[in-house]
User: Which sequence fits this backbone?
């Protein structure tokens, strides 16, 4: 776990966005074991709502999802001043 500067107690938060629950389960398990606080979303729209409610330190974002893919989700994050600087790592099964 990487403590935030000035606050060694705070866990870093990761939002995992994937339409395949098994992928979320695997990533969540690995990250939790490393001391990260995990939240998840099953699609881009849900991810945007979650980010609005609680800003994560980083987002792991699946590229291929129905309705709103990872690129569209990231684009909306970048258009919003309050979320534009959240780091995003794209994931794909391809």
Assistant:
């Amino acid at each position: 776990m990487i403590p935030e500067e000035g606050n060694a107690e705070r866990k870093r938060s990761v939002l995992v966005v994937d339409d395949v629950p098994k992928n979320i389960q695997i990533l969540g398990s690995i990250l939790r074991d490393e001391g990260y606080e995990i939240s998840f979303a099953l699609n881009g729209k849900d991810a945007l709502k979650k980010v609005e409610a609680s800003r994560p330190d980083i987002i792991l974002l699946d590229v291929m999802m129905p309705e709103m893919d990872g690129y569209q989700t990231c684009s909306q994050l970048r258009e919003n001043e309050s979320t534009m600087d959240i780091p995003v790592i794209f994931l794909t099964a391809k």
